[in-house]
5-amino-6-(5-phospho-D-ribitylamino)uracil phosphatase YitU
Amino acid sequence: MIKLVALDLDGTFYAGRILGVPESAWAAIERGQKAGLKFAVCTGRPQGGHGLQYAQRLQPDGPHVFNDGASICDAGGRSLHAEPVPRLKEIIAIARKYRLPFDLMGAEGGRYYEDALMPPELLTHIEITGVTARSALVEEIEETLVRLWFVVPDLSLWETVKPDLEALTEIDLAEYLSPREAIVGLIKKGVNKLSGLRWLADYYGLSLEEVAMIGDSHNDLEAIRDAGLGIAMGNAVEEIMAVADHVTGHVREDGFAQAIGHVLALNGQT
């Protein structure tokens, strides 16, 4: 029986700037809550902002996973668990050497960038999640730092820098490449949404078999594969659909509500 539903946000629960979170998704959450389900955000988004607002409505008395498992907090934003970025001084030295713009995520919801490296046009990458960022030198930040993002407009420069970062074997790189830029996340090796699910299960005294994960993208793969019930959205990438136990509809076509309906049906609570 599924007792906890963990959910990705973008492309799973949140359908984009125009649609936002469909009303059918909120109605499904209410149905699930009435049936006794617990809910938890499990997202790659930084801690805070719009993601934390969703968390407060989804489960105001429980923990939520941000930064792909590197930070876990309660619905008020108080840190419950954090996985600091290893070898951060070396990473920052590489960024400064090649003049790579970056921003850093903190375990208490802080977000930081260095003015000297951040072109104003790239601040849009920071502001989109609703988490307020401020300029600061890394050496002055007291908060535990759990994730770093590079935004590199020059793909050839990224290919030059990448081997230096890959040599730091304690970190994982997540690359999102387009013809015009590379967006790259750095996190402690072995930290991901699955490690976040395990933390949530321990918190609630559950096994992973009692946890469902709903998602659509590559960073959901391990969690969907190993959860008791893995659900892929209809708009999910093929790799996610291949490991999921169930594929629901598109996020823009009430897919999330259908996913919760599937959970309730398996629990015999239709």
